[in-house]
Write a structure and sequence with these properties.
Blueprint (H helix, E strand, L loop, with lengths): L6 H13 L13 H21 L4 H6 L25 H13 L3 H10 L5 H4 L7 E2 L5 E5 L4 H6 L6 H12 L8 E4 L13 H18 L3 E5 L1 H8 L5 H4 L4 E4 L5 E7 L2 H6 L4 H20 L1
Helix pairs in contact: 4-9
Length: 292
Amino acid sequence: MALLFSMNDLAGLLHFYRDAGVDWVLDDTPGDRFAEAQRLKQAQREARAARDAEPGGPARNRERTPSPGKAAPPPPPAIPSATAAVPDEAQVARARDMARSAASLDELKTLFSGFDGCNLKVTAKSFVFGDGNPASGLMVIGEAPGRDEDLQGLPFVGRSGQLLDRMLAAIGRDRTSAYITNVIPWRPPGNRTPTPHETEICRPFLERHIELAAPHVILALGRPSMAVLTGRNDSIMRTRGSWLVHRTPSGVEVPVLPTLHPAYLLRNPAHKAFAWKDFLSLKMRLRNLETG
């Protein structure tokens, strides 16, 4: 029996795809990617079997040793890998050189936005650098932009950003008295977790970002941000509220306070009390720095 869908049903489906991170259609007709991968693997197996069956192929070479004075047949050509290529260490070194050359935040933003060594740049709509007052003394660092941030080109402007604004307001701060950014400036497709390689490629720019902003205190939102800044791999529930240290490439030490990410708090509102304690600790640390 045929099913009839209303325009509201179709609109709801499109909204679901949009929220899931589906930004555009890659082909005019749908394709079975799993079947394509299986066909590729089967073709590779058949190619290997054909080479093994040839005179002088790998299977024959294992059974008989070439006679003296007779050259061994050349090895068969390698089959190209079906996996996507990722930037190598050269891109990390290039990012390091570019970041080190920036003499100001504006220059760093220009260099970073033009950097093409991270695959995330290809799929993201916007380059999300920072928002707020770099001279405020407080730097807030998350992991990566989400959908709303990708659309607007600013960090923390969605639901989690609105919660962050309320949390900052509770200790007398706002975007004129804080500076907000992320470890990675491009949204990962579908809001997936950035890979360690993507994080390492962006790390030199983040480190230079911190050096140029010269904050007195860094608020690390979530475990990924804490891990990049401090090298600690503990759970965020174990380390939140503890003052740690970020050491810049130039040797400057900046206090870091890990806390729960606002997106996590939206999913687990009962843990907001932990974050409130952390923000009170942040407020006292900033007050002591400003009056000391």
